[in-house]
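Lecture notes, structural biology module. Today: joint structure prediction for complexes of three components.
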Amino acid sequence: MQAVSVNHALGEELYELAARIFPICRSITGDGVRRTIDILAAYAPFERKEVPTGTPVLDWEVPKEWNIRDGYIAKDGKRLVDFRRCNLHVLNYSTPINTIMSFSDLKTHLFTLPDQPTVIPYRTSYYHENWGFCIAHDQLGELERLGGPFEVVIDASLEPGHLTWGEYVLPGRSKREVLLTTHICHPSLANDNCSGLALMALLARELARSERPVTYRFLLIPGTIGSLTWLALNEAAVGNIMAGLVVSCVGDAGGPTYKRSRRGDTLVDRAFAHVLPQDAPGHRIIDFFPYGYDERQFCSPGFNLPVGLFQRSQFATYPQYHTSGDDLDFIKSEHLAHSYAIIRRAIGIIESDRVLVNLFPKGEPQLGRRGLYGKLGGTADAWRANMAMLWVLNLADGEHSLLDTAERAGLPFELVARLAAVLEQAGLVRPKAEAL
Amino acid sequence: MQAVSVNHALGEELYELAARIFPICRSITGDGVRRTIDILAAYAPFERKEVPTGTPVLDWEVPKEWNIRDGYIAKDGKRLVDFRRCNLHVLNYSTPINTIMSFSDLKTHLFTLPDQPTVIPYRTSYYHENWGFCIAHDQLGELERLGGPFEVVIDASLEPGHLTWGEYVLPGRSKREVLLTTHICHPSLANDNCSGLALMALLARELARSERPVTYRFLLIPGTIGSLTWLALNEAAVGNIMAGLVVSCVGDAGGPTYKRSRRGDTLVDRAFAHVLPQDAPGHRIIDFFPYGYDERQFCSPGFNLPVGLFQRSQFATYPQYHTSGDDLDFIKSEHLAHSYAIIRRAIGIIESDRVLVNLFPKGEPQLGRRGLYGKLGGTADAWRANMAMLWVLNLADGEHSLLDTAERAGLPFELVARLAAVLEQAGLVRPKAEAL
Amino acid sequence: MQAVSVNHALGEELYELAARIFPICRSITGDGVRRTIDILAAYAPFERKEVPTGTPVLDWEVPKEWNIRDGYIAKDGKRLVDFRRCNLHVLNYSTPINTIMSFSDLKTHLFTLPDQPTVIPYRTSYYHENWGFCIAHDQLGELERLGGPFEVVIDASLEPGHLTWGEYVLPGRSKREVLLTTHICHPSLANDNCSGLALMALLARELARSERPVTYRFLLIPGTIGSLTWLALNEAAVGNIMAGLVVSCVGDAGGPTYKRSRRGDTLVDRAFAHVLPQDAPGHRIIDFFPYGYDERQFCSPGFNLPVGLFQRSQFATYPQYHTSGDDLDFIKSEHLAHSYAIIRRAIGIIESDRVLVNLFPKGEPQLGRRGLYGKLGGTADAWRANMAMLWVLNLADGEHSLLDTAERAGLPFELVARLAAVLEQAGLVRPKAEAL
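The predicted structure, tokenised, for the full assembly:
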């Protein structure tokens, strides 16, 4: 019972957008973030927001701004390791350096993956000042053989500046808010997280095209410090968040994986629990744990927001994770489109779930007289539509929502919602309260 | 651990009674219902109750009364399809007709089962006036070859009259009521539902023979419109219903199947959940869904009564369902007797479950001093009796009923109830309140 | 993930102590109990407590005191059955006798196990005055062949006296109390219960060596009448019991088996549910039932205390149970030490479980700044320690205890508790209230 339809043209567009932002060297601050937001703003008007270095945010403080222009290890003028070829080569948030040193002095600043000797690891040193290079393990031996002296240059700045993020609010009929957030702090890693950024931009574009029952807020934020900053600035307003989703790593072939909110049974959790078994045979639904992406902050005990995480392969479970192997060959347009379709469907459930009241609750109302009952010899679809109507009538007791009804009936939410609308038009049910 | 004993003589009597009412052409109104009630009234004094056509009942209205005397398709005076040979041949609730027509005009009024070409389907058209014949699919080809002209006669009346049902109340010490109900609207279908009607009559006869702790109400009602009518007339009194059971299709070899009430965990649900695993290895217990028999009405959200459904094979899951294949060979006396025994046992649990209070709750009372403790080297039965006593004492805290105790102890309810009576006589426990 | 360490020297010491008290003929009253307490008092100062015969205790009464000096069946002055060789030979609580009789008069006073013809059964007749001998079934035939006359002597006394038990209270910082209790009424049966008595003595010795957050109470009591007596005398104080454990039969190779308290989900139940899967691959956790050891009395509905039972093989499930087969070869030092380690660990959880409050609940506090975060490339242990910290912070919402946290995190309690202490020292969490 696949209910989502995967849009191939959209998949291509998602891939192209991810590819376009792939080369930019992003970090938790700096111009890479600004440039990425500006590109995505062509799809939906994301606003660039900033707070200065040193701003206290909850238990943390906004760090210095990092910008990098170049970086290399050279010998005799020949670049052996070159930031311009792959921005993963420089330890993200490296302090600047410009010196000449032997291999033995250099080697404590070199990071490799001995288990995957041909790929470049992605490493950061955000809150502990350090400099370094990430290289393939095979190249380490090569440098050792050369011995030096090496010219070691990182042309970067780490200075007071700003923390930057993108934000876009789409008002709806209700102030109740669906929060959609993704991290913007990773450099040239395709799945993690050019894929998520592209998905957010195109999803925002689509949702902007029609009226919305609820408000949507999109965040493109640096991991950890970005969500902490946003939470610190918006503490008073988080009560409006009825559901939230962290989106990341949505382009690979695995999963998909849904990680529940800390509360575990909120509307967003139940929406994905409804959608995934129908639309993603290989899916996994896992419980919350306090590690991973920004759900850690949204689900900290002082906020405890109803925010889940959607990914394809779970982070840190595949060899390409946080390496140069997470490149544009690792993501595919079909997976991007599938991720998009699933998230879009779950959002549709979240925004349209509601509780109805049966106006003829004693016995069944006579559907045949109102032309609502399927004919003799009806198709399987007519049968399912009839069952959906009977279920809506039976559970429209002011205590069950349409999602409750769909789950208990074993029918897709959308079918139940469609027949509920038919019954509402026929005057047989009415909403318990305003739509959510 | 089979606890019910199946009574073979009773099985024969059930079969004979089902066979006796089998030939009558019943519908949701009319003389077939009246004649059936009169036959069953020889076993227990079911009262014939009626309301006139046009009476509003909840969202519905009592329809015209239908009676039929004859019906046939003939050619050259020879009856090819004959109501007198099988009353399924006439579409139930057909309007009268008396005409001559060709096959091509006739054929839209002929109903067959292409997948089962030798059997006659059972079809109705209660709330949409129409006429028609139900025939074996093989005969359709034969009529087509003959081509006509055919004499087409349905000697029926569809006129203002009454809706009729049977009702019998057996008062008990408590006004709390067990509702037992079955449908009386089907013509010559043995399992569906001559079997249920026969079972209800003999069960009423048995329950009338001794004092009852609770009141029993038996209903023999036309499907849907009958329960709607009864509910409309008895709306104020339904609060007395502590448990209810829709009984239908109790003579075939399948199941048995118990379908839970909408609430899912009421006393009748728990009684069958206790009995069936012990007494019916092939049983199925399924959740409520808003389709099926009159549990649809009793479990509509405005009533939400604790009413389940007992059947053998689940309706619509066997090829004989609603066809001439549901004849007197399809039901067996042994299945009738087994169904009877299971329902009888479940009723026994429902009427005798109660909550006790241990009068010596601190430590165990000394059973040996009171002669209550099994002797050394006791048999397995003595052991089970001892365990039943210890469980009753341990759970007689005013919060657990005997059924709770039996379930937690893994012992048959009747053993637990018997030892509870022993403990009550010994002054060790007392009822928390009057028996239910 | 084995967390307990088994101490071999302690196992030897347990075995030797069990062997030392093995020869004593104990019963529910009498000098055997007194002598056993005196031996165990060398390890921990158990106090001998007594109440006189005839004292009413709840629904019971303290029985006469039984003491035995000798007992035999002889022919021609030659002892054929001799209490001095095995104290199981005399029916425990036998009235005295000194007579000469034929086999046919004697035989109703002889107890054997036909299914195990070479072992002597252990039988008692506490509350019904009787005399008798327990012998191997093979010997029954031998006596029958000899025919008699037999000299039949039981040199015992059954007279007004006292009921005796051992009690030892180890005060802790809190009055909340952990009750540890074992039965002292069995004669020469090694597993049932010299093993339990030895374990209690050495456990009391260990717990006395350091400060305790909670109070411990050790009881060495005659089965049933001992717990009833203690409960009758301490009724007002049982509210202090936060957890309790009946310990018995802890030296055989089976299980171990944990039987839940009547409530089923108290702290002691949850502690064993945490420990056993990690430390005892063959363990079984079973629900409460009102038969067995003194948990029957502690879990009677009027007390309903949080008291479970720890054994190795479940009682009455092994052929040596209550026979001369339960000798010093049936228990092993390694099983005694394993039982000790498991109980010790569970107690450690019980006494140190507590609820914390995160003082920085909004977002994660910055662990790195405080030097709390694991370094890059940390080992699996560092990873687990980090996860434990994050879990403690996430669930320190005043509603989850450390055991809740350990269970949800899938980490050993002790690791979680250790990191909780680190976080407390760092000023990130504080106890919700005084430690339990």
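Point to remember: The radius of gyration of chain A is 25 Å.
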